[in-house]
Design brief:
Order of helices and strands: HHH
Structural class: mainly alpha
Number of strands: 0
Shape: rod-shaped
Largest sheet: none
Radius of gyration: 24 Å
Distance between the termini: 32 Å
Number of helices: 3
Helix content: 55-70%
Length: about 100
């Protein structure tokens, strides 16, 4: 519960795209390009060019996705983060162990 303020918020359902999922997807996409080139009778040079071009396009798309997620999650001021942490750590009785509590 205390770590919820540390974790990034979900942006349009895209936060589930982790690096391992991306790498596996990229390998499958490149394998499809290789199979398509082989079945189409393309030369080794053409196949290599297609694989490199496909890898660049995939990498560019992933970079833009991550960049959009970073831009949409604007940094929060320290005061807002501190207020959220106080709300999460306070008990139902109020700030029971707070330094602001009087000693009456």
């Amino acid at each position: 519960m205390g770590q919820s303020s540390i974790l990034p918020e979900q942006v349009d359902g895209l936060s589930g795209m982790s690096l391992p999922k991306f790498i596996v997807g990229m390998i499958f996409a490149l394998a499809i390009v290789v199979a398509w080139s082989f079945l189409g009778g393309a030369s080794l040079g053409t196949t290599l060019f297609r694989v490199i071009a496909c890898a660049i396009v995939i990498q560019l798309g992933y970079f833009l996705l991550v960049f959009a997620m970073v831009v949409r999650n604007a940094p929060k001021s320290a005061d807002r983060i501190r207020d959220v942490e106080r709300k999460l750590s306070s008990t139902e009785d109020g700030e029971k162990f707070s330094a602001r509590r009087s000693l009456r």
